[in-house]
Amino acid sequence: MTTYILRNASPAKTKTDAVIVGVVKTPKGPVLAGAAEDVTKAYGRKLKPLLQALSLTGASGELAKIPTAGAINSPLLVLIGLGEEKKVDATVVRRAAGTAARSVGNAASVALALPSDTPELVGAATEGFLLGGYTFETYKRDSKSEHEEAAEVVLLSGIARKKGATAAFERAQLLAESVAGVRDWVNTPANDLNPPSFAEAVTALHGEVTKGRGAPKVGIEVWDEKKLADEGCGGILGVGGGSETPPRLVKLTWNPSGAKSHIALVGKGVTYDSGGYTIKPAQSMV
Description:
By secondary structure, the chain is of the alpha/beta class.
């Protein structure tokens, strides 16, 4: 299980297996992004010819790995292109963090020193790294994944001690965890994730989220095919009637104190959709 830490520290002095910094395009050529000023100082005059030798321009998506040979405390420096300096925003940082996450391989510890001088950028870097490292390996048995999760990921930010940064950091982890869970469901084939098993999975997740003191009070109802028939839900029953597994409807309700309005989020909830037998070839359905 990976531990995520938000820290105000120097990328050059941080001792992890790999440290990730951004490279931006400027009129004077590629330079390391502001968060990595101390890395620039550590390399001194050697940095510019090094970037030239690696053919780095700072273009978005560029990536290079450099053994540091003691120039900084981490043995591996990962450079990731961010594009034009003036256009670096949350989307750019999120994508760069995702690219970086897929490049650090089996590093046991990683320091992420991408631009993160606002809560929005802190959240973007965190989300990007977590989602970029997502893998689905439920059905892998004999082959080992090439991507091993780091035991520790440290996000380096000059505003790490501010409440806004901490809140953005924690929120990003929750969002990424939720997205990863949905991706697992999407990637699970329909013969394993049918309406009853999906309802069971949601019920189990509900139990985890609402367990313990201070947990949110979220209600849950699961309607089976009998309840759906009693309530006149012909549409769901009609679609589910073509399958061996009966339909389900899962309703989650949250009533926070002080709420002033109602919001309803409705999911399609179809675990397998043929897309219309008359328009989709059988091979494409498979």
